[in-house]
Amino acid sequence: MAKHIFGAEISHENAPLHVREKLGTDDASVKQYIQQLKKDLDEVCIVSTSSRFVIYGVGQNITPLINFFFRDPILFHYVQFYKNTEAAVGHLFATASGLCSQVKGDRHILTQVKHAHQVGLNTGSIGLLLDSLLREAVEIGRKVRTQTGIDQHCVSLVDLGLDMLRQRMGGLMEKKVLVIGTGKMARLVVDRLHDEGCKYVTIVSHDAQRAGMLAARMHMQAGHIRNVAHYFMQADIIVGATDRLVGIFPTAAKPQQPSLQKRFVLDFGAPPNFDRAMAQYDSIEFFDRDNFYGQLPAAAQCRNSYDEARKIVHAEAKEFVSLFAQFYTTPILAPYWVSRLSTKDNSLKGFLSRMNKPGNRDTVRLRKLTYRFVHRLEDEQLQKLRLYTVTGDTQAASPAEVVRNVRSFESLRFYLSVN
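Below the sequence we write its predicted C-alpha cells.
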C-alpha cells in the first residue's frame, strides 16, 4: 500500500496559551512523543515552539496522529489535521516561509525547523522522505525570503525595538531583561528573547501563575507585578507589553538623582504602560510605539510580499508532491535518491579529510555548499527521469544510466574549491 505524509498541528491561530502549554516543548518531551509515534509510523518529526506544536508523519494512514491527540479531549478540540501529502507538504513549506507565523516572514522559524530536523535525526525517526522534505522546506523558506522580502516588509514593532537595542547595546545575551505581561505581545517578546539566547529574563504579571508557566517553558524567571519596582531597578531593559498602566514607583519615591545604570524602556503596551515622564531621567532611554510606527512598512507592501510568497510555496509544494508520487510509481527513483544523498555525504567526508583541520564554520559552510550543488544537479537529472518514465521519451537517458552518472562527482571538488 502506498505511503503518505500527514500532519497535525495545534497553534496560536486557534488554541489559547493554556491549551498549547499542555504539550511540552522541551527536547526531552519531544523525544518522548517521537518514541510513542514511531511504533505506528515509518517516519516522524515534531516542530515544537511556544506558538505551535506540529507533527509530520509518514505512514499508510493518519490514524496514529488522531490517536495521539484523542487521548486529551481538550487538545483534540483544537487540532488541525492535514490529511494528505499535498496538504502536509504545503503546510510545512508555508510554515518554513514564515507565512503561518504571528509575524509574517518570521526568520526564527527556520532555525526551529532545522532544530526539529536535527532532533529527529538524533532519535532515528527521520528517514529518506522526511529528511528530504525538511531540507527542501528550509531551502524554500530561504528562497521565499530572498525573492519576496517578506521578512523585511512584514516586520513587527518587537523586531524593530530589539534591532534598535542590538545596535545600541551591542548584544542582548548578557543583559537583564524585565518583561511585563503575558499576552500576545509579551509572548512575542519572550519568543524573540529566547531565540536571541538571553540568559537573564524575568516575566511579571498580575497573574503570577500564568507568568510562571510561560517562564518555565522558556527557562526564565517569573514574579508578581506588585514587585515590579524591585525588578525594574535590577534590569537593563524593561519591556511593557500588557494592557494597563504600570506604576513603576510612586511619584514621591521617584529618584531625584540620575542612576549610574543606564536602562532602556520599550513601551509596546496598548494603552501605554508607562508614564512618559520617566524619559526625563538621564539614566533612562524611553521608546514607545510612536517611535517605531514610522519605520513599519506599508500594509500594501506587506500584502504583495505575502501573495508572492504564497505562489512560490504553492508551486514548490506541487513539485515536491509530484516527486513524492513518482517515488512510489517509479522504483528507479529510490536508488537515485539514495545515491544522491550518499554521494553527497561521501564526497564531503573525503574532501574534509584532505583539508588541514577545518574549523566548525568551514565545515558548516561546506555542508551547505555540497547540499546546494547536489540539489541543483537533482533538478536536471530528475527532468531526464521524468521524460523517460512519464512521457516515454526514448531520446532521454535511461534511468539506469542517470543513476550511474550521479555516482561520478569529479566536478564536485572543483565546485567546492572555487567557492
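The two ends are 44 Å apart (CA to CA).
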